[in-house]
Amino acid sequence: MTNKSDEILSLKEEIALVSKRAFNRGLISGTGGNISARINDTNQVIVTPTAVSLLDVVPEALITVDLEGEIIDSPFGLKPSKETTFHIAAYQFRPEINAVAHLHPPYATAYSNKARPLPLVTISSRVVLKEVPWVECAAPGSSELHEYVKEALKKHGDVKAFLMKEHGVLALGGDLKAALYITDLVEATAKIAFIESNIIGKP
Fold first, then answer.
1. Strand, helix or coil at 167?
2. Catalytic residue (one of 13, 70, 83, 136)
3. Dist. CA 66–CA 142, nearest whole Å
4. DSSP 90-120
5. Which fold does the domain 4-200 belong to in CATH?
6. Is 83 a catalytic residue?
């Protein structure tokens, strides 16, 4: 039977793995984006640090915060992502959510600028995603952006992903792989919508 410290280490290793997969899939670039996961049966969340590329995330550098945003553990003295506040909002409003990925896939980000829901142009996207609403733009890490995300979470209580205007995608999952796969599906749907719009007209 594993103890809590083993569980936390395993979760940190998975966050590092998913972070690298997101980067290598082209869902993020540079030092953008952030990923987090809830520690089971606690009010604590592990989140990627600010100003560190997801390609370079290692388990030892991940930061633990509580649902008030207070730092519980930061071994290297790094700061949590400046967008941790809207990750926390997702966990507070959606108790079934255990992982959050905020990434910047290019096609989905382009569609976010249209300020309307993502066109669901495949049967898979309609079955799995059902709806991908959009969130208004505000400066990264700002209280305004936190409020926009919070209001979107209140209004759309069961969606799996949001387009964040001029900013990317916010994906919610029961676990880390689910959050990554949701982001991947949103990006693939946006890419197909773009191709379709250039073949048969704008969706």
1. coil
2. 83
3. 19
4. HHHH-TT--EEEEE--HHHHHHHTT-SPPP-
5. L-fuculose-1-phosphate Aldolase (3.40.225)
6. yes
What string of pLDDT tens digits covers the 203 residues of the chain? 468 899 999 999 999 999 999 999 999 999 999 999 999 999 999 999 999 999 999 999 999 999 999 999 998 999 999 999 999 999 999 999 999 999 999 999 999 999 889 999 999 999 999 999 999 999 998 999 999 999 999 999 999 999 999 999 999 999 999 999 999 999 999 999 999 988 865 55
* Alpha-carbon span 190 to 107, nearest angstrom: 5
Query: C-alpha angle with apex 15: 88 to 87, nearest 5 degrees?
Result: 10
Burial of 24 (0-12, 13-18, 19+ CB in 10 A): exposed
- Contact criterion met (CB below 8 Å) for 109 and 102: no
Distance CA 188, CA 122 (A): 10
* Closest by Cα among 114, 118, 123 to 171: 118
- Dihedral angle at the C-alpha atoms of 79, 93, 11, 19, nearest 10 degrees? -60
